[in-house]
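Z., the sequence and structure:
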Amino acid sequence: MEKQQKFGLRPCTWVYLVLVGLTFVTFFIGQMGLSGLKVALAVLFIALLKGQLVGDFFMGLRRVKGLWRWPVFIWLFIPGTLITTAFYLAARAST
């Protein structure tokens, strides 16, 4: 089974480049000293997106059906929800 290549790169290479790009985005957000609820939630979303990309492409879960996809999704969803709730409550309490 041939993997489709765009510009001579395999899909996992593209995902790796996206992961590196998203890492630079979060790095520069930190270096610029941006803060606030929206920025914190954006950085959290980027982290969750990166985790899902790693699960899909590098752990081989993209084409898996059924129960095997759920552990990674739940592992990302529950902490992400709890952290989002904590950020939201903290921002609400400080206003």
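The helical segments are 11-31, 37-58, 70-94. The mean pLDDT is 88.

Let me know what you think.
H.
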